[in-house]
Amino acid sequence: MYQPLSGARTTRAGITALALGMFQIACTSGVIFGWPAMYLIMRDEHIYQDACEQGEETCEAQLLRLNLIYTVASFANNASTVVTGFFFDRFGPRLTNLLSSLLYTIGVGVFMLSFYFRVDMFIIGYGIMGFAGPGVQVSVLHVGNLFPSFQASAIALLSGMFSVSSIVCRIFQYAYSSGVSMSTVLLVYIFLLVLIFLPGIWLWPDTPYEQHQQQQDPNGSMQDINSAASAPGNRDVDSKLHSLPFRQQLNSLLWANIVWLAINNLFILFYAGNVMSMLPESVSDTYTSVFNWVWCLGFLTMPVIGYLMDRRGMVPAMLVTMGAQVAVGIIACLYYVAPPGVQISAFVLSSFSNMSIWSIEFSYVALVFGFSNFGKILGLSSFIAAVVGLLQFPILYLVLHHFNSNYAYGMVAVTALIIPSIIFPIKHRQYFAYTPSRKQGFKKLGEEE
Question: Which of 94, 116, 117, 175 has the fewest CB neighbours in a 10 Å radius?
Answer without folding.
Answer: 117
